[in-house]
Amino acid sequence: MATLGVSSGAVWAVPIIFAPTDTKGFHERVFAGAGSIYFLKGLVEFHGEDGSCPGNRPEAPSCLITHTKEDTAAVMASGLPVS
User: Would residue 34 count as lying in a domain?
Assistant: First the structure.
């Protein structure tokens, strides 16, 4: 997470991570460096290329981390159920 806040001027990433907001690491790396944090409603499910869902649903909530105004605008325009 520490390196995601640094841009080479070319590409930014909007990572999706678990949201353990009660941990020291989340406070030090995410809260301290994020431009914005969007918590996803419900639990994320990952699907294979064929559309199958292998049942690897996490047991924790997830969030998207943005660092730039452009990334924030993209998340807001995405239609994802975020809060």
Answer: yes
Q: Could you say which DSSP state residue 49 is in?
A: T
In a domain, 53, yes or no: no
What residues contact 3, with CB distance under 8 A and at least 6 apart?
Answer: none
Amino acid identity for residue 56 in this structure: N
Distance CA 72, CA 66 (A): 6
* DSSP for residue 82: B
Domain span at residue 27 reads: 16-42+60-83
- Residue 26 domain-assigned (yes or no): yes
Q: What percent of the chain has pLDDT over 90?
A: 0
Q: Does any domain span residue 38?
A: yes
Q: Encoding tokens for residue 63?
A: 């969030």
Q: Which residues in the chain show pLDDT less than 70?
A: 1-13, 83
